Amino acid sequence: MSRSILLKQLQAQSITPENFRSYGQVIFPSIDGKAYDAEDAQLNLQNGIPRIYIMRLHHQGRKFHKITRHVQCTQCLGSLEGKDWLIALAPPNNDTDQPKLEEIAAFRIPGNCFIKLEVGTWHAGPYFDGDFVDFYNLELSNTNEIDHFTHNFLESHNLEFEIASIS
Fold it and tell me: Could you tell me if 107 and 86 are in contact, meaning their C-beta atoms sit under 8 angstroms apart?
């Protein structure tokens, strides 16, 4: 007998430095020549060769059942062309192989900033409503081969998530 899949709706909240702190940092534009400080991305890329690249993602809706984390580096993501996007996150928790359900949150990221995910932050996305969006991605050159840990909520909880539309 097959079980019906549960669907949990996540309302995307607008990102601020305060509400994003458990997951990482949000970096907004600053004046050229500003001295380095705590508002700049605090990167951890010492465990390998840093890689920055542009990845083209195609629209795949806003549903997900898998969430991933990287435990050897921080990761930075941002859209090109000023496009808004969505991401679902859970704070790092290195004592278990899955995020806490009650801590999963969704954010709307405006196209004029980027995010830096702390080491171990669980993430699903980026999601968006257009046909495709180009994103820059800063991580390690081998992150997707050796530092890519995924939890599948369909297998563990018969659960799928959907992020509410961008408003």
Answer: yes
Q: Where are the alpha helices (DSSP H) in 14-167?
A: 17-20, 143-146, 153-157
Distances (CA, A) of 157 to 36, 62, 149: 44, 19, 18
Q: What one-letter code names the amino acid at 88?
A: A
The reported pTM is: 0.94
Three-state DSSP at 156 gives helix
Q: Which is more confidently placed, 143 or 95?
A: 143
Task: Kindly list the distances between the CA atom of residue 164 and the CA atoms of 22, 99, 136, in Å, as whole numbers in the listed order.
Answer: 21, 20, 24
Domain ranges of the chain: 6-29+42-163
Return the CATH class of domain 6-29+42-163.
mainly beta
In 3D space, the residue among 40, 63, 21, 50 whose CA is nearest the CA of residue 137 turns out to be 50
